[in-house]
Amino acid sequence: MSSNGAASNGFAIEANHLDIYYGDFRAIHDVNLKIEPNKITAIIGPSGCGKSTMLRSFNRMNELVPSARTEGEILFRGMDIYAPDVDAVEVRRRIGMVFQKPNPFPKSIYENVAWGARINGFRGNMDDLVEESLRGAALWDEVKDKLEQSGLSLSGGQQQRLCIARTIAVKPDIILMDEPASALDPIATLKIEELMRELAEDYTIIVVTHNMQQAGRVSDFTAFFSLDKDGSRAGVLVEYGITQNMFTKPKNKLTEDYITGRFG
To answer: What is the tally of structural domains in the chain?
Structure first.
């Protein structure tokens, strides 16, 4: 895969005519979505409309489900990440993932951050990388005197920021976040949202959220997914655009109904 920076067409990553199946069930139907670099894109929509499936398609995490298969293409750096000669491990290094529930390793805070960089062959100063990554995740000042303590000893919000530090330590281009604050209290949620805005200066962020207010606060662009009207229960992209426009002047009645709470 080629070097950092936006892809040659100007987008960080794009899906073209994407269909995703689990066995015979089609979870995502004919999605076309172009993600802007160094912006936060929120994926919103009712439960079961394929938001997390869509998110996981961007770094081939769906492949970890044995029955999953993907049709169409996802272009990153001008390459289809689903092409046979593309290494899924390398894709996941370049496109990192932060999950809904904080999942630090049962290791020290230091090792949580260092581990991914080490297995990816990092040869620089590990102490500097760990500090830089923890600073990048707005956690350094809280943990700098207890780096040898278990990552599991931290609060939920701190654990999630540790997972973000672990993600950015391997220098990805894109960070995927699957409801990263849904398990956290309001104060910890606010810290994660502030951190996302800071990270968008250096990374492209795609976040799935059920929280309309959060999408409105943190994202630059919003993709609204819903269920296909043909009765198949496949997820379809209804509308995509600048968040402020989507939330004040949505083009589609379905989008308006969802954002104003009339359904969902």
So the answer is: 1
* Structure token digits, residue 59: 């770094």
Angstrom distance (rounded) from CA 140 to CA 164? 12
Per-residue pLDDT of the chain (264 residues; tens, 9 = 90+): 443 445 447 999 999 999 999 999 999 999 999 999 999 999 999 999 999 999 999 999 999 999 999 999 999 988 999 999 999 999 999 999 999 999 999 999 999 999 989 988 899 999 999 999 999 999 999 999 999 999 999 999 999 999 999 999 999 999 999 999 998 899 999 999 999 999 999 999 999 999 999 999 999 999 999 998 877 789 999 999 999 999 999 999 999 999 988 765
Query: How far is residue 200's CA from residue 196's CA, in Å, rounded to a whole number?
Result: 6
Distance CA 249, CA 53 (A): 27
Asked whether the beta carbons of 260 and 228 are under 8 A apart, the reply is no
Mark residue 10 as left, alpha or beta (left: phi above 0; alpha: psi -120 to 50; beta: remaining): left
The one-letter amino acid code at 149 reads Q
Q: Which structural domain range is residue 21 located in?
A: 13-259
Instruction: Please check whether residue 154 lies inside any domain of the structure.
Output: yes
pTM metric for this prediction: 0.93
CATH number of the domain at 148, please. Answer: 3.40.50.300
Buried b (16+ CB within 10 A) or exposed e, 185-215: eeebbebbbebbeebbeebbbbbbbebbebb
3-state helix, strand, coil in the chain (%, to 5): 35, 25, 40
Indicate whether 6 belongs to any domain.
no
Q: What is the DSSP letter of 36?
A: P
